[in-house]
């Protein structure tokens, strides 16, 4: 089969598109013929050796796929050959086939297109877990989302609105803010032409924000850390801006808020039942048209390097899907 392979941790341009052996299912696994694979910011960090996980090389990146089961491993009885599924494979998604633990594979309704199904696995699932399990957000609370036009940012806007929050979208351009507004944002802040801390104070009437879904890092994080409401929850989701900030912890003491880490990949391993329950809820919301996936672009698998560079450069509104 064809696959994108990372031979050594290096810039994205050094990824190769080559023939590799087809995967074979181990006990408890299935093999999926991939129809679509989502592209995510952590994929770009992973191949450069900049992510929390550092897999042995060579490896195939790509953690979320949609496709059709073609082989069953020993002991798998709840899934069938020919079934359309989505899967959290962690690695191996930038390929024509992938072997994946059956515990991380879910059947999908025919109403969900492959590209959108694949894109649900990481971006929406991260936002869902962050707001449900980590923030335990309540109706009527304020939710500020940074990077609100990106894949997981848009998901947080949608899900926060669905869970009853008043959503403040923070983006760097008016075009991105328009996308966030179309996905349910109530208040828009363009941090490229205004002071973010001052703007947050104005739109919250000095109260601060109950929950921040923070994906950017750097100065954006610092502005948010100084803009929290009492009993607020500052969710640390990622650092798309490239700078991992340091927090003056006296702010947490004085302002009475919590800093909460969100590592969805680890959550799926430590709490597999909660992960499965979350995915079933997400799929139900999608079918009920309560959430949607914004596919910015669909590109051939061999153009994965270009897709990753667009995501890493924060030039994508929503998600990019790879097609083998």
From TrEMBL:
Span of the signal peptide: none
InterPro entries: ADH-like_C, ADH-like_N, ER, GroES-like_sf, NAD(P)-bd_dom_sf, Quin_OxRdtase/zeta-crystal_CS, Zn-ADH-like_protein
Limits of the Enoyl reductase (ER) domain: 10-322
Cited PANTHER family: QUINONE OXIDOREDUCTASE-LIKE PROTEIN 2 (PTHR43677:SF4), SHORT-CHAIN DEHYDROGENASE/REDUCTASE (PTHR43677)
Matching PROSITE patterns: QOR_ZETA_CRYSTAL
Pfam families assigned: ADH_N, ADH_zinc_N
Gene3D superfamilies: Medium-chain alcohol dehydrogenases, catalytic domain, NAD(P)-binding Rossmann-like Domain
SUPFAM superfamilies on file: GroES-like (SSF50129), NAD(P)-binding Rossmann-fold domains (SSF51735)
Domain of life: Bacteria
Protein name per its UniProtKB record: NADPH:quinone oxidoreductase
GO molecular function: oxidoreductase activity; zinc ion binding
Natural source organism: Paraglaciecola hydrolytica
